[in-house]
Design a protein that fits this description.
It contains ten helices and no strands. By secondary structure, it is an all-alpha fold. α1 packs across α2, α4 runs parallel beside α7 (109-126) and α5 (74-88) runs antiparallel to α9. The protein starts with a helix and ends with a helix.
């Protein structure tokens, strides 16, 4: 039923916007009372926005899983992951614009960040990332920072604009990775650990 209501929402959002009125209209189209609506979608348009985002994640991953990531260089994997995720959202561009505007509200920042992080995590896992240290988090944070503006550009300025943005950002990330290579970022943490150890147990050796 959630997916059926979401289908109705996609048809009604271009005219009504992404709001409580649209949620009520989408639920009515599926024969749901207000009581049913509150049980199914207690957070109204936030719940529908999350359903839409996760639907697109699922569609994107189905397409990506048909591609062997090892046949691509790492920057191509990430570019392919982003492009595939953006492309599936273009099935209903006007409704997607309304949802994007709703998600851009400050009150929805928490949900937007949570959903984008999950998308970034799925793309990195498909790309073969197995990092479990701080790189696990930095990679997803960086990719999340690319996904949101790339989606906005794709919706409002077109594919060429989003492609150029993504290519430039990936180049920045690759340059950072080259700079980072060989640097011992754990050294400060080890020094703090050694200091605390010496204070507790005394100098050794």
């Amino acid at each position: 039923m959630e997916q059926s209501v979401l289908d109705s929402a996609l048809a009604k959002a271009p005219a009504l916007g992404w709001n409580r009125q649209m949620v009520r209209a989408a639920c009515q189209a599926q024969g749901l009372s207000r009581g049913d609506e509150e049980l199914l979608l207690p957070n109204g348009p936030r719940d529908l926005a999350a359903l839409l985002w996760r639907r697109h994640d699922g569609q994107a991953m189905a397409l990506l899983n048909a591609i062997d990531p090892t046949s691509l260089k790492i920057r191509q994997r990430i570019a392919t992951g982003i492009e595939t995720r953006l492309e599936v959202a273009m099935a209903h561009p006007e409704a997607e614009k309304r949802a994007a505007g709703f998600m851009a509200l400050p009150t929805n920042a928490d949900l937007s960040l949570k959903l984008t992080w999950a998308t970034a995590d799925q793309i990195w896992r498909w790309a073969g990332d197995t990092a479990t240290d701080w790189n696990h988090y930095s990679k997803r944070a960086i990719l999340s920072g690319i996904l949101i503006p790339a989606m906005t550009l794709r919706l409002f300025d077109g594919k060429a604009a989003s492609d150029a943005f993504v290519a430039a950002r990936i180049e920045n990330v690759m340059s950072f990775e080259k700079w980072k290579a060989g640097k011992d970022f754990d050294a400060p943490l080890r020094k703090v650990g050694d200091l605390l150890s010496s204070l507790r147990y005394g100098a050794r050796g």
